Amino acid sequence: MHFSRHSNQTTDHVLRPPSPSFTESSDGDFSSSQSTVVQLTENFRLNPDLGEFVSTIYSRAFKPQKLQPRKLANTLAKVEDDIGIDFAIQPQIMKAVQQFLLGLSSAMLRKPQTILKPPPINSLAAPSLVDSPSVTEIAPHPISLALLQLETLSARRTEGISYEIHVRGEAQVAAALIMSIQRCAPSDDIFVATPHRVQRQAVRTALATANAYLPLVEAMERLGINSENEERSGRKGTVTVDTVERLQGSEAAFVICLFSLPESASSDLKFLLERRRLNVAISRAKTLCILVSSSTVLRPPVSVFADDGSAKGYAFLRAFEDRAWSGKIKVNADLIN
């Protein structure tokens, strides 16, 4: 596993959502002082549900030209093979993340599961993109939006959870997601988008610890080599952990967005609920976006809505929540070093 810095170059045949770097007008369009901006509606990068969500802030809806393959559901199901393995990540966190990803796999395959709550708004693929009627098996459910609600708890800290402790717990969750996804899909790129640099550093530190332990895990696996383990060892994808601004213009198959806060840091809500920042982070995903958030952000005090920018950002965040399959994870702050 290694970190990389992706360039901002794009290929001509990939159509992106209108760039959030333009000035936003009151009616939701993006305009430039230099020339008129024409919104592209055909999108070949985003899956239908992700494209439909991102287009909620634009005047014209996207016409998605991509269908999420069944392979993703089968890929995430491989997480089950890693249950019980020590990755130098808090076991309770690792287990909860693994169950979360397995729940996503089951939901995609339309299998019964009790881990995730289905979205209130059920965005399915457009009829033209659904598998051919000649295919006898049921078409997979295209899921590109997932929400993981983080709660940090402590029996010792009567004064509440500090921001620093919360960030370290959040980083453990991110590291568990990265390790699980990368072992299932070693050829795919993963982005971790953080609003703050302190979050970026916390994730990198957690990953460095897990990464140092990984050779031992893989050495034990090689004692019983099979084709699956050989495939896992051929790593091609990269993991990029950086701030949202530095990821703008890049893309990855999997994107993990860290937008959670403890109650003690509610003063930072205005910064997190900046719609443009949320849009840039979420729309980097080509296959699956996992948003890690918390009740402080998802259910902010009414006073937050006095700021027009925060109100718009919250509406955008709520639109994500309404379309995402959601799960919960509790982190014991007393076990965080």
Automatic annotation (TrEMBL):
InterPro entries: Coronavir_polyprotein_1ab, DNA2/NAM7-like_C, P-loop_NTPase. Residues 1-34 are annotated as: Disordered. Coiled coil: none annotated. GO terms for molecular function: 5'-3' DNA helicase activity; ATP binding; hydrolase activity. Residues 1-12 have a biased composition (Polar residues). Residues 21-34 have a biased composition (Low complexity). The keyword Transmembrane helix does not apply. It comes from the Eukaryota. Keywords: ATP-binding, Helicase, Hydrolase, Nucleotide-binding. Residues 34-295 form the DNA2/NAM7 helicase-like C-terminal domain. Pfam families: AAA_12. This is DNA2/NAM7 helicase-like C-terminal domain-containing protein. It comes from Dendrothele bispora (strain CBS 962.96). The lineage of its organism: Eukaryota, Fungi, Dikarya, Basidiomycota, Agaricomycotina.
